[in-house]
Every structure is written in C-alpha cells, then in structure tokens.
Amino acid sequence: MRIKRAVSILLFSLLLMGICASVAVAESEDKVVLGFILPTMQEERWALDRDGFIKEAESLGAEVLFQASNNDERLQATQVENMLTQGIDVLVLGAVNSSAAAAFVEKTHNEDVPFIAYTRPILNADVDYFVWHDLYDVGRLIAEYSYKAAPKGNWVLIEGDPGDDATAFMREAFFKVVQPHVDSGDIKIVVDQHALKWSPENALKIAENSLTKYSNDIQAMCCWNDGTCRGAVRALQEQGMDASDCYTTGQDGDIANLQYIVEGKAGMTVFKPCPPLGAAAARAAYAIATGKKPKTRGTLFNGKVDVPLISVENIPVDKNNIVEALIKPGYVSLEQVYANIPKNKWPKIN
C-alpha cells in the first residue's frame, strides 16, 4: 500500500556555523483508499455496480472515493486528476471514451497508482487488470438470439458510442455469428449506426428514421444496450409494433427492459449481474493495494499488453427463461418485473 500524507522532514540550517540538521518524523499508513469512477449513472445498472463495489470495499476495511462522469470525457479527466491528488491507492475506472482513457492510465502510473479498467476495455495502454462481463460473449448472444427470432429479413444495428471500445468488441463477435447469413442474403443489414454516448434519444432517432425509410419492414433491431433498446422500443410503439413484429435486443438487465420483455415489447437482454462485478473489482483493487495478486481468468491483448482478466458470467434473458434465470435466483423480484402485468397473469413461483 502506498504511504500517504507522510509527515514532512523538517530541515533547517545553522548558516553561521555551516551545519545542517534534519528531523525525521516516523511515517504512518492510513487505511486503503480506492478510487472508483463510472462513465455515467444514465442506466440503472451503474448504481448496482457502485453499490456492489462500495459494499465489498467497506467490508474489507477500505475507503471508497466515488464519482460518475455523465458521459463527459473532459469531466472524467478532471475526476481522475482530483482523485490522484487525494492519495488513492488504486484507481478503478469505467471509461467514457476508451481512446482518451489511455492517457489516464499513463497519468495514474506516473503517480505510482495501479489502474484497473472496469467493464469497458482500454486499448493500447498499460492497464494492470480488466474487470468485465465478457463483451465478446454479449455480442455473440445478441446475434444468436436475433437470428433465432428473425432468420430472414431486414435488420437495423444500433451500436454503442464509437469512442467506447466495448462497441468494437461486441461488433466483432456479433458479425462472427451473423456474417454467413448476410453473405447468403437471408439477412440484410439495412442500417448500421452508432448511438452517440449510448443515448436512448439518439437510438430513438435512428429507429424512427429506419422505420420511415423502410416502411416498417424491419424484422430486428439489434441494440447494444438496454438504454438504446428503450429508444428503439419507443419508435416501434409509435408505429403500433412490438417484439413480435420487430425483435429487439439489449444488455444490462435494467428493470424497465425486463418489464418490456414480459410485456412483449422487447425481445431479449443480456443480464449482467452488476453487484458481483463491482464486488470483484473491489476485491481486486484491495488485493493490489495490500501487495497481493487478484485471481484472474485469462488475458486480453489490448494492442499493447496482455491484460489479466477478472470476469463474471453473463445471463441471456428472454420471456422463456426470465423466471428461472433471474427471479428465482433473487436477482430481481416478481413484483418488479411483472409490475405492469395483471396479477392473475403472473407466473407461479414454486
């Protein structure tokens, strides 16, 4: 653990005699201080990440400095600077812009502070560890579920922010599944656009324009997260359409999207247990701060180094498995998910 707030050594000179003397006061260690910065609190999942991290860190005896960046990379740069001046032992950061965040890694290391990338990869930087829900897996699942629901027809891709390397990871895995069906002509990618800053409003505009241009002849809207999916669902609702007309996807498992799924408004989401991921990041950060190595599961080459991975399993969810996958294990409650469904139509939970 880095030693912070060290008591300075008092130097004074006896100029007339040409004698120097110094007084050294013993240094002392404070408790571990972990910096945790998330890109936004726009989606509800980020509150779960935060809570999981803070709860685990405090149980270990660490202090947490937390901030969210409102999807503003300039604000995030300021937050990184501020945390470093406060003497954190480890920085855990979910990047707003993955390319810009490479500079944060260098700045953090210049202060002898280890750096953990959280949930979003940072390429071409000396990242110490990466904590994530496997984004290749997310892209694969979105592709597989979309193809199962709409094996032929016109597809719209509403990808995430282009400055977030998570978008590229998901796209690579997505097209490994879909490209053969595109090549055969069964699937036509008629629109492929990015929702800037993962904005639901940007996704709404993409979806509305797509439906207008193709006269509602769209069989799937493959959205990269739940926020963008909500934008797509709004556009479909405006046209009197639902998931039976146009299949939609997402990731995160926001309550609103789980409600859409059981209501038939959305097709699926990739649920990512966020409190466990936050807790895993806290354990890793605490281990590093106290001179230990966290447990890892493989590595990911980020263009510069092989970054050790710490991961938590993804859970694909649709109307067929939502009870078994999420409600029975206690991730969410029946009352939350089925809030907009008449109670006499709720599933029976044994």
Would you give an account of this structure?
There is one protein chain. The chain has helices at residues 45-59, 73-85, 98-110, 135-149, 165-183, 200-213, 226-238, 255-263, 274-289, 322-327, 334-337; strands at residues 10-14, 19-23, 33-38, 63-68, 90-93, 115-118, 129-132, 153-159, 187-194, 220-223, 247-248, 251-252, 268-271, 299-301, 306-311, 315-318. The model is unreliable at 2-28 (pLDDT under 50). The chain is of the alpha/beta class. The chain folds into 2 domains: 33-133 and 274-311, Response regulator (Rossmann fold); 135-271, 3-Layer(aba) Sandwich (Rossmann fold), CATH 3.40.50.2300. The protein contains 11 helices and 16 strands. It is globular, with a radius of gyration of 24 Å. The chain has a 7-stranded mixed β-sheet with strand order 4-3-5-6-7-15-14, with helices on both faces. Strands 9-8-10-11 form a 4-stranded parallel β-sheet, sandwiched between helices. Strands 12-13-16 form a 3-stranded mixed β-sheet, with helices on both faces. Helices cover 39% and strands 21% of the residues.
Which key terms come to mind for this protein?
350 residues; alpha/beta; Rossmann fold; 2 domains; 7-stranded mixed beta sheet; globular
Topology:
Layout: E1 10-14, E2 19-23, E3 33-38, H1 45-59, E4 63-68, H2 73-85, E5 90-93, H3 98-110, E6 115-118, E7 129-132, H4 135-149, E8 153-159, H5 165-183, E9 187-194, H6 200-213, E10 220-223, H7 226-238, E11 247-248, E12 251-252, H8 255-263, E13 268-271, H9 274-289, E14 299-301, E15 306-311, E16 315-318, H10 322-327, H11 334-337
